[in-house]
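Re: [ENG-882] Designed sequences occasionally contain unexpected residues at chain ends

Forwarding the minimal case from QA. Structure tokens:
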């Protein structure tokens, strides 16, 4: 996806502050943080959104979730955190490359909307 910002971050043509990387996924600090810690987890494979998760590509989602606890601890999130996925227009997804927001470092509001 030539016009995908996150694909460009993955291939290094747009810089990012990386916090974790392996052959399947990349995690980096969000450029517009909504909390003291705000990291995005993305699959290196371009998947547009949660609505495009299938039996064939779902393993990378599980992989992301196995890596979140270690990254959270490494960033000091010892008292909990929130994981968010925005999907599609009603979900206010602005970047059309599947990503999970890891938010923490303060008491987050209980309201989800
Ligand atoms: P969403 O609204 O769920 O699609 O979240 C997209 C997030 O991506 C938003 O919090 C801002 C972040 N973002 C957009 N462009 C860039 C960028 O070029 N670099 C980084 N690090 N984050 C970006």
């Amino acid at each position: 996806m030539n016009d995908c910002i996150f694909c460009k971050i993955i291939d290094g043509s747009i810089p990012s502050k990386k916090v974790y990387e392996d052959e399947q996924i990349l995690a980096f600090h969000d450029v517009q943080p909504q909390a003291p810690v705000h990291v995005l987890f993305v699959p290196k494979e371009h998947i547009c959104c949660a609505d495009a998760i299938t039996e064939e590509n779902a393993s990378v989602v599980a992989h992301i979730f196995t890596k979140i606890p270690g990254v959270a601890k490494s960033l000091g999130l010892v008292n909990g955190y929130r994981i968010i996925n925005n999907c599609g227009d009603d979900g206010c997804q602005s970047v059309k490359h599947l990503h999970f927001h890891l938010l923490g470092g303060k008491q987050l509001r209980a309201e989800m909307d």
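QA comment: On inspection the terminal residues look reasonable. The longest helix spans residues 59-74. Proposing we downgrade this to a documentation issue.
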